[in-house]
Design a protein that fits this description.
four-stranded antiparallel beta sheet, single chain, NADH Oxidase
Length: 381
């Protein structure tokens, strides 16, 4: 939820809780949950350096579903923590697998920085069916290579943010920016637009799709149950949807914000979030989308790799970037919006839009998302 919008909705209620005090408000940042972003830069062990950067990858609902087994032969196998999937909004684990693609691409970029060629074998024990299973998603091989070229996107990894805020509606995204962000077009095609008519259609579509997810009790509660409200909750569980900072902590302390209120569509807490997201979608100043020729598991992984390259390039260009792929979800109530986005963007079956992101210029600084430390994601081979 956007901070200033929720503040506007709650209005004068904050006056009554001003007694929280400056000392309380100034210590509300969940700094411990952001520590893995700094730890990535200082790691000396090459394999751990690669993995500390990989765990900073974007992923659905920030579930961080990866489990990594470091093997005696210098390899590593990457598995999915099956308890961290999203069965309501992602019933076939497609979005979770795209998140693994982001992880693998950021690992490869970080490896090159250390003079390592990262071999990535997808599904070394076979591809999953309709759902991911206990077999590895990928096996990684680390090979030292003195002449390994560094990737210019590496420097953007720790600066990458998902800007879940309204963009500056007075600043258009230049057409040449779309061209720059679409340059990595194989094997997943990247397209985009800032054309006014299509922009208007996609703004409405993304809002309608967000509302469809929010109005479906099962899919909305999947999000509500993963919301971490305030510093203590975020640091205890640095995953899911973080609602952190002085405003959210103060609202929670005053009894004005909790999961029960967010679940109830009649409350100010819910209405504040709804109004916030309406403004967010209305200020989208450009869109990118990633299209595969089919919908295989390998294509889903490649979509994640392509997606995060564009995200890092947007970071380098100073462009705000926010995935808004609700309309691509595969539960029944989303089907009209799923069909609409494919028709609107001219993608016919068996082609498939894998991801959709909105672009613009951020109006406020966005802190890094909470992360579990790498150590919590390692297991014995």
């Amino acid at each position: 939820m956007q901070r200033r919008t929720l503040l506007k909705v709650i209005g004068g209620s904050l006056v009554a809780i001003a007694g929280a005090g400056t000392a309380f408000l100034s210590t509300r940042d969940p700094a411990a949950a952001r520590a893995p972003w700094a730890a990535a830069a200082t790691e000396a062990d090459p394999r751990l350096f690669v993995l500390r950067h990989a765990i900073l990858a974007p992923n659905p609902h920030n579930r961080q579903p990866w489990v990594i087994a470091l093997e005696a032969n210098g390899q590593a196998s990457v598995y999915c923590d099956l308890d961290r999937r999203l069965p309501e909004t992602d019933p076939f684990d497609r979005q979770i697998l795209i998140g693994f693609g982001c992880f693998l691409e950021m690992a490869a970029i970080a490896a090159a920085e250390k003079g390592i060629r990262l071999g990535i074998e997808a599904f070394p024990e076979g591809e999953p069916g309709e759902r991911l299973d206990a077999r590895p998603v990928a096996r990684l091989t680390f090979t030292a290579e003195a002449a390994m070229p560094k990737n210019p996107l590496f420097g953007q990894i720790r600066h990458r943010r998902s800007v879940k805020e309204a963009f500056d509606a007075s600043k258009p995204v230049p057409r040449e920016t779309i061209t720059a962000l679409s340059s990595a077009a194989t094997p997943i095609a990247v397209s985009g637009s800032v054309e006014p008519v299509l922009l208007g259609d996609l703004r409405k579509l993304t809002w309608d799709a967000w509302a469809a997810e929010a109005e479906n009790t099962a899919t909305w509660m999947e999000s509500v149950n993963l919301m971490r409200i305030g510093r203590a909750e975020i640091e205890a569980n640095p995953d899911g949807i973080d609602l952190g900072g002085p405003l959210f902590d103060t609202l929670k302390l005053a009894g004005l914000l909790d999961r029960a209120q967010l679940a109830d569509r009649s409350t100010q807490a819910y209405k504040g979030g709804e109004e916030s997201y309406r403004e967010i979608m209305a200020t989208s100043m450009g869109f990118l989308w990633w299209t595969s020729t089919g919908n295989s598991r390998r294509e889903q992984l490649e979509a994640g790799r392509s997606f995060v390259r564009s995200h890092l390039q947007a970071t380098a260009l100073g462009i705000g970037f926010h995935p808004v792929s609700q309309c691509l979800q595969e539960f029944a109530d989303m089907k009209p919006h799923f069909d609409r986005v494919h028709a609107l963007l001219g993608v016919d079956s068996p082609g498939r839009i894998q991801m959709l992101a909105r672009l613009g210029h951020a109006t406020v600084p966005v802190p890094p998302a909470p992360r579990w430390p790498l150590e919590t994601k390692l297991k014995a081979a």
